[in-house]
Design brief:
2 domains, DNA polymerase, domain 1, 5 helices, five-stranded mixed β-sheet, Ubiquitin-like (UB roll), about 160 residues, alpha+beta
Length: about 160
């Protein structure tokens, strides 16, 4: 089967990979590029564990084909921190104990970052609705929402 050459930008850096027509973006990120932060939880777009930003839109990487990334700009969990400096969301997920097994955490952080870029001062209800596409099987959601709200407050300087 012929492989396709894909040229894209991932976390601000140019990237290239070869993929088969049916390979998902998630598989390309993990298997071809070694970006294993995004997780496969369901392979059907129901859990949000593989959430990435694709050209400014929050998507499940398990539902996007790798070939569709041609010319696109992708942001993954690996691009959230600035070097050794954790993003406020990452810091608050740790401080507020908003994770257990960690499978859902990258998707929640990417989705929450998209929320806070869209609305830096969400209500708790808005945060819960925005993150409704991300499922957690371990922690419940209260600590996750608390971490997002605390990060939002920190980012606003409140």
């Amino acid at each position: 089967m012929a492989k396709h050459h894909v040229t894209t930008t991932i976390n601000g850096d140019p990237a290239e990979f070869l993929c088969e027509t049916q390979q998902t973006l998630l598989d390309c990120l993990r298997d071809e590029l070694g970006l294993t932060g995004s997780k496969e939880g369901c392979a059907s777009g129901d859990c949000g564990a593989c959430s990435v930003m694709l050209d400014g839109r929050l998507v499940c990487a398990c539902l996007v084909l790798g070939v569709e990334a041609e010319g696109a700009t992708i942001e993954t969990i690996e691009g959230v921190a600035q070097g050794d400096e954790l993003h406020p969301l990452q810091k608050h997920f740790l401080e507020d104990a908003a994770l257990q097994c960690g499978v859902c955490t990258p998707g929640f952080i990417v989705a929450a970052k998209a929320l806070l870029e869209h609305n830096p001062d969400p209500t708790e209800t808005e945060a819960r609705y925005w993150l409704a596409g991300n499922l957690c099987r371990c922690t419940g959601y209260d600590k996750i929402i608390k971490a997002v709200m605390n990060a939002a407050a920190e980012m606003r300087g409140a």
